[in-house]
Specification:
Oligomer: heterotrimer
Largest interface: A-C, 70 and 58 residues
Radius of gyration of chain B: 28 Å
Largest sheet of chain A: 11 strands, mixed
Distance between the termini of chain A: 23 Å
Shape of chain A: globular
Chains: A alpha/beta, B alpha+beta, C alpha+beta
Strand content of chain B: 15-25%
Order of helices and strands of chain A: HHEHEHEHEHEEHHEHEHHHHEHHEEH
Number of helices of chain A: 16
Number of strands of chain A: 11
Helix content of chain B: 25-40%
Bound molecules: magnesium ion, zinc ion
Mean pLDDT of chain A: 96
Largest sheet of chain B: 9 strands, mixed
Structural class of chain B: alpha+beta
Number of strands of chain B: 15
Strand content of chain A: 5-15%
Mean pLDDT of chain B: 91
Distance between the termini of chain B: 61 Å
Chain lengths: 505, 499, 103
């Protein structure tokens, strides 16, 4: 990765390079942090990656990291002193957490999410809270109550979603790292359309404690970065068992950093790759498929054997997801009832509690959130549970079986991450089903709880395309290994990282 | 409906057969809450035992308290249930301000204990109460209703919520429908809850303080004409929170339903509320408009699959249960089965046993606890065990009577003193100067005075109406502040009058 | 598309669902949502095509059971922190508007 250091601008360095420079005393965390705060000040009015900047907190953390180094202490982690954009879905004690919603405007949590705590303990500098689709429902950030973020490749286009503040911040060099969350593709799709690396860990691999729930059985936090190694380094910081999350896996974090380093050597001989038949035909843009096929050719050249694998139930992923996620959301979002925290509307002393609740929820939630709450309420209601929620859970079983059968034959499955490149802001806002289609390829891994990474595969119409690599549960390292091999090979062919082709903001 | 239209209870049970069912919620006595580490101490300042999880803050998650699982299994085993090898929590979705997440985490179609029974006896007749299920769930917060009449929700201008109770572990114990109890239904219901309470206490899983709301009953009641086989429409009476109320609620609901059926009316399937003050139930929300709870498996928790060896370990550690203990105590105390049942119904078995253990004869201990002390408890509308007197103190009073220091009347005064002050009997006796006057010379003046004060009564006695002496005895007792021995006084009066 | 296309979602249905979900939707929203839900349900009803009684539903993808904690008291939030975000407070409690129906 040393080739990036040709940039003297601290915001252009990778996270690994920044951490190394800070540890070596070549620069300070305060300087690095200030450089990113300056960059945010310069470009974020156009990108709108952040909902909240915590300059004081960031510089205080940076100072502490520098002081610890000065006193001879070992770095708290391999990313100590490196700045990060934290998706506004993670609770941060003493800092606003809005989840992109008006209903939580001004809410200051009295506690830290486990991910937040781990970031702090690792000496990572949290610059602020990144924009997102309201309650993580969306694929574009257009559902943010605070306005959309913009794709640095083309400011008129979406940066993906729901972690679009995270992706746009990293792609615009406002932060070298970001935390996103992925329920149906919300890390991978923004990473893909912004030319970044984004990984959705195995469900249970990263604690959900303090992650404001959208769909509890699907939500997973994970890293976004400009390269595979940086993502792996961040993954190791946030991953691991947490006794506050009952669904957290009690096993060591897969050795993803080691895998990323090994993968960068570029040897995939012996690796069996499956191309998923169902994730590549109808609905996928020609340019996306072209980039994907070229990527598969690269994998072959690196020594992998490639075969086509049919996963027939993957095509039911979208309907199953759009029943399960709204159902769980309808329950998870019930607590926003104007009683203990958040917005309260219409409490004039006359109106009843039920009226105040209903008025508040109607005023505080945006249309997509309301749509999904109503859909989920419907799917769970007495007469419809079996036909909708119950059936969707069966589809989940069938999709998991498809994965299991596939992994009998291959080590990883690949597909394009998204059917299309970043679409223009406003194009799909009135067409929910068109918006939902953005998740087509990412949904199966979410429903089965298996890990999946998106790594840039090239451009189509001048916009980034992502390659999705899926592995069996708890084999996250395999995602990183293959992604790193592919990244190294493509960067070498190109002569530079893909993101350098983005416009300069 | 006016009171005058209500039929008598005897009339109701002559024509109708009740089917009842009970759902009992019990707060478990764990140190921490069901899904978080907050303390469960009763009476703490409002909203001081709350955390992100039990306040339902965004992002918070539940983690199951292992002790609550263990307690639920203990209860299930004591109630002869099967312990499910695999059970799950679900979300019960409905909006209510005392429920922080606006859903309750509760077991639904996959409870931890199923299919048990509890044997009870009412007036010598045995009943086997089927247990449908025992499941775990979380309690809600508590609301104060402000601005209306004395804390009622109706007419209140607003409410104030304290979430200290939210998330305290609850077990819900649900009976199968109880049939064939006839007129004994209210008594059966009360006896079941009493027995259940005693079992829970014996198991050490809850202190079961009904006055603090740690045991709450919902009572289902329906009627069918005697001889019919098809059950009637049932109502669910909520929050029946004392043993006495359980009995009253069943009785009053039976009477209410009968009067509707008598008029050719139909029973509405609905939730009703029991009012302690009137002993009546009033209509709550009818089931037609009831919330659709939209249950689904709780995704934040994983299934509970207790190890068979653990279940057996718990089974092996179960204490002697109240029924077994009663059988043993009956033999030890040498009392009749009827007496034992009466003691059990009054909730005084342990108190009698403890009084005997403190040295009192069983007969005396039983008489005190079923007699004067039970009256005092009744008058105060509390359980006998909640009286401000220990079995040891009762035993001491019995000893003072036995050695002649106190008369029965003085003994009651001594007990009254203990109940009022909490002091031990000897202190009360000393401070109040409770001393039996047996000195004949000291009494003769009072006797003479009583006779002089009621010459007409004296004349009757002289004329052979010995029963009239009671009035004179009373006068002497009053004059001596109850310290005289009534028997002796009577003898002196009769002697003085030459009868 | 499947045979089991759902019945039409009417404004009344949406109004009922919105009431269950405590959403005071406007008339305009009722129209919009009814139309959109119809389209979405038409698409998601496809899950019915793979109906099979022998397929167990998946509610949890992690193969975990018996995750629990010891019964130990942990510090609660300071009272002020617990109340800090409350829209209204009275007598150390969360003040809420009057409650209409008894539960
Ligand atoms: Mg219950
Ligand atoms: Zn708590």
């Amino acid at each position: 990765m040393g080739k990036h250091s040709q940039h003297s601008d601290l915001t252009r360095l990778t996270a690994a390079e920044l951490a190394a420079a800070i540890a070596a005393g070549e620069t300070s965390s305060v300087d690095v942090t200030q450089a990113h705060l300056d960059r945010i000040a310069a470009v974020d009015d156009r990108v709108h990656a952040f909902l909240h900047i915590d300059a004081d907190g960031a510089l205080a953390t940076a100072k502490q990291v520098d002081a610890q180094r000065a006193s001879g202490e070992a770095p708290a982690s391999p990313l100590a002193g490196v700045p990060l954009a934290l998706k506004d879905v993670m609770a941060t004690e003493g800092q606003p957490t809005t989840v992109g919603s008006k209903i939580l405007e001004g809410w200051i949590p009295p506690y830290d999410a486990t991910v937040t705590r781990k970031l702090r303990e690792a000496g990572i500098v949290v610059l602020g809270k990144a924009n997102m689709d309201e309650f993580a429902m969306g694929s574009s950030t257009e559902n943010s109550a605070y306005g959309p973020s913009h794709n640095p490749w083309d400011l008129d286009r979406i940066p993906g979603g729901s972690s679009g503040g995270s992706s746009s911040a990293v792609a615009a060099y406002e932060a070298p790292l970001a935390i996103g969350t992925d329920t149906g593709g919300s890390i991978r799709q923004p990473a893909a359309v912004c030319g970044l690396v984004g990984h959705k860990p195995t469900y249970g691999g990263v604690s959900r404690y303090g992650l404001v729930a959208f769909s509890s059985s699907l939500d997973q936090a994970g890293p976004l970065a400009r390269n595979v190694l940086d993502a792996a380094l961040l993954h190791e910081v946030i991953g691991g068992h947490d006794k506050c999350d009952s669904t957290s896996i009690d096993a060591p974090v897969p050795a993803v950093v080691e895998a990323a380093r090994r993968g960068a050597a570029g040897d995939l001989s012996g690796l069996r790759v499956g191309v998923v038949t169902e994730l590549g035909g109808e609905g996928f843009q020609a340019g996306v498929l072209e980039s994907f096929h070229a990527a598969v050719a690269v994998l072959r050249e690196l020594g992998a054997s490639v075969q086509e694998i049919s996963c027939p139930y993957f095509s039911y992923g979208l309907p199953a997801y759009y029943l399960i996620a709204p159902s769980e959301a309808s329950s998870n979002l019930a607590r926003f009832d104007a009683m203990r925290y958040g917005l309260r509307v219409g409490d004039d002393g006359e109106r009843s509690l039920e009226e105040v609740m209903s008025l508040t929820r109607d005023a505080g939630f945006g249309p997509e959130v309301k749509r999904r709450i109503i859909l989920g309420t419907y799917a769970l209601s007495a007469g419809y549970y079996d036909a909708y929620y119950g059936q969707a859970q069966k589809v989940r079983t069938l999709i998991s079986r498809d994965f299991a059968a596939a992994y009998d034959k291959v080590d990883v499955l690949v597909s394009p991450t998204t059917p299309t490149v970043a679409f223009p802001i406003g194009e799909r806002v009135d067409d929910p089903m068109a918006m939902y289609a953005a998740d087509l390829a990412t949904l199966p891994a979410s429903l089965a709880g298996v890990p999946a990474i998106s790594v840039p595969s090239g451009l189509s119409e001048g916009l980034p395309v992502g390659l999705q690599i899926m592995a069996p549960a708890q084999a996250d390292d395999r995602c990183y290994l293959v992604a790193a091999a592919f990244e190294t090979a493509s960067d070498e062919r190109r002569g530079h990282v893909l993101l350098e082709e983005a416009q300069v903001l | 409906m006016s009171v005058s239209t209500l039929p008598s209870y005897e009339d109701v049970t002559a024509r109708y057969e009740p089917v009842i069912g009970l759902e009992t919620h019990v707060e478990l006595g764990t140190a921490s809450k069901m899904f978080c580490g907050c303390a469960t101490t009763f009476g703490a300042d409002p909203n001081t035992q709350v955390c992100p999880t039990c306040l339902g803050l965004p992002g918070s998650l539940p983690v199951v308290n292992a002790k609550a699982i263990e307690y639920a299994i203990r209860i299930g085993l004591a109630l002869n249930c099967s312990i499910a090898p695999w059970s799950r929590f679900a979300r019960k979705n409905y909006f209510y301000p005392d429920m922080p997440k606006d859903y309750q985490i509760s077991q639904y179609d996959e409870p931890i204990c199923i299919d048990g029974y509890l044997d009870i006896e009412v007036e010598g007749k045995p009943y086997r109460i089927g247990i449908e299920r025992v499941h775990l769930e979380e309690d809600t917060g508590k609301s104060l209703h402000v601005g209306g009449a004395t804390g009622r929700i109706h007419g209140a201008t607003h409410s104030l919520v304290d979430y200290n109770r939210a998330g305290i572990p609850l077990v819900e114990i649900v009976t199968k429908p109880i049939v064939g109890t006839g007129a004994a239904a209210p008594e059966v219901a009360r006896t079941y809850v009493t027995e259940l309470r005693d079992i829970l206490r014996t198991l050490g899983v809850s202190d079961v303080r009904m006055e603090q709301g740690s045991l709450r009953c919902d009572v289902n009641t329906s009627l069918m004409p005697v001889g019919a086989s098809e059950w009637g429409t049932r109502t669910e009476t909520k929050n029946v929170n004392s043993l006495r109320s359980v009995e009253r609620a069943v009785r009053s609901e039976m009477i209410r339903q009968a009067s509707i059926l008598d008029d050719g009316g139909k029973i509405l399937q609905e939730t009703r509320h029991f009012h302690e003050d009137t002993g009546r139930t009033t209509s709550g929300r009818s089931k037609e408009e009831a919330t659709d709870y939209r249950y689904f498996p709780e995704p934040d928790l994983v299934p509970v699959a207790p190890d068979a060896a653990w279940i057996e370990e718990i089974r092996g550690s179960l204490p002697e249960l109240p029924s077994a203990r009663r059988a043993r105590l009956q033999a030890d105390l040498g009392v009749s089965a009827d007496d034992m049942q009466a003691m059990a119904n009054a909730g005084v078995v342990d108190l009698v046993a403890a009084t005997v253990a403190a040295g009192a004869p069983a007969e005396e201990a039983r008489n005190w606890w079923l007699g004067y002390l039970a009256q005092q408890a009744n008058a105060a509308e509390i359980e006998a065990s909640e009286l401000n007197i220990t079995p040891a103190a009762v035993a001491r009073v019995i000893a003072l009577v036995a050695d002649g220091s106190l008369s029965t009347g003085l003994a009651r005064q001594a007990v009254d003193g203990v109940l009022e002050t909490g002091q031990d009997p000897d202190t009360v006796v000393a401070e109040r100067g409770l001393k039996r006057v047996t000195d004949t010379s000291a009494l003769s003046a009072a006797v003479a005075e009583a006779i002089a004060g009621a010459p007409d009564v004296a004349e009757k006695i002289r004329g052979g109406k010995v029963a009239a002496a009671g009035a004179l005895v009373g006068a002497v007792m009053k004059a001596t502040k109850g310290q005289a021995d009534a028997k002796l006084v009577r003898e002196l009066i009769l002697k003085e009058l030459g009868v | 598309m499947s045979d089991d296309t759902p019945a039409e979602i009417t404004r009344t249905d949406v109004a009922h669902l919105a009431r269950l979900a405590r959403l005071a939707v406007t008339d305009e929203e009722l129209d919009t949502f009814a139309g959109q839900l119809q389209v979405i349900l038409g698409a998601v009803a496809r899950v019915g095509e793979v109906a099979a009684d022998d397929i167990p539903p998946t509610s949890h993808v992690v193969p975990l059971t018996n995750v629990w904690r010891a019964d130990e008291v942990r510090p609660s939030l300071p009272h002020d922190a617990a109340m800090a975000a409350a829209p209204a407070v009275e007598q150390e409690r969360f003040r809420v508007p009057r409650i209409l129906d008894e539960e």
